[in-house]
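Running this now, will post back.
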Amino acid sequence: MPNGENALNPGHASDAAERERIVVIRRGLMLVLSSPSGAGKTTISRRILAEDDNIHMSVSVTTRPMRPGEVDGKDYQFISEPTFHRMVSNRALMEHARVFDNFYGTPKAAVETALEAGRDVLFDIDWQGTQQLREAAQDDLVSIFVLPPSTAELERRLRARAQDPDDVVARRMAKAADEMSHFAEYDYIIINEDIEESVAKVRAILSAERQKRRRQVGLNDFVRGLIS
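Update: finished.
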């Protein structure tokens, strides 16, 4: 024979069961990493992607030709220029830019699908793209700017790659000054003196941002069930 409080109040058990069925689902976030060339954002991005299964790189569309070794849909989505302009007109891109003679952009639908499923999306873009994303994404965006410990170290890293001639290094250094002047537009700043420490800081930021109250879908109903 039933006994205790549930026997006196049969509805109590069903109410408790209903509360248990309330599920809190985390909405994904958009993590932006920006830095001047040579400051370390690409290395940090690769580490985060390799170590965390719940975040993946945003795949941009581009009108430039595919390069040897690239895979359509993995490195970029390669599209025609008329298709690109049609996507811009239809507001199908979260951000877009012209780089020299080619166009690049972030498809909105794929990102929104990922966020709704609780998956995070990583962006390796500059400050201009970040500004556009902030206008389009609102609370979904988390932005990190990676700074070098000094301009001398930045130049050393660029030269150590042994990929660019002196004039290209000089142009990259000149561009870096402009890029770094936008540091105040970002949520977090990391001075990349040590790559292991910098990766750990990005991990900590990502972990904390995932727990933000506004990303917990269904949390209000869950808490109401706990206190009712």
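The first strand starts at residue 25 and ends at 26. More later if anyone needs it.
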